[in-house]
Design goal:
- The protein is mainly alpha-helical and 127 residues long.
- It has one domain.
- The chain contains 6 helices and 2 strands.
- A hairpin with a 4-residue loop joins strand 1 and strand 2.
- The radius of gyration is 16 Å and the shape is globular.
Length: 127
């Protein structure tokens, strides 16, 4: 999924201070992959972020598209989102959001990325 140049860009934009993002949601908001939900008493609107790190946000579609070819779990997740009614860009942003959460977890726990943990196989229905 994440190549040499895009990986370097992601790590350069995140920085080496692990205390900068104490939660994954802060990293996702910084990258612009987390949507903004505005709700009043009667209406709820979900919008995309205008204020974000544009260099990190530009890596999102590249990372998502590259992972679709290399990762069966990412492909399954993307296809599930598309089947649920998401547009192509929405499904890519959701996949990028998921990857950022996994990256945050790996950096804070000093664990290596494992696709089987990140994208567990679907549960088989009992017959």
């Amino acid at each position: 999924g994440l190549g040499m140049l895009t990986g370097a860009r992601v790590l350069a934009e995140i920085g080496d201070d692990r205390s900068r993002f104490t939660q994954a949601r802060g990293l996702k908001a910084f990258a612009g992959s987390a949507p903004i939900t505005r709700a009043s008493g009667k209406k709820t609107v979900v919008l995309h972020r205008h204020i974000k790190n544009r260099r990190l946000a530009a890596v999102g579609p590249i990372w998502a598209l590259a992972s679709l070819r290399a990762s069966p779990g990412a492909r399954r997740h993307f296809d599930t989102r598309r089947a649920a009614g998401d547009w192509n860009h929405q499904a890519q942003r959701h996949l990028f959001n998921k990857f950022l959460g996994q990256l945050h977890h790996c950096l804070h726990t000093s664990q290596h990325y494992d696709e089987h943990v990140a994208f567990p196989p679907p549960l088989q229905l009992a017959a």
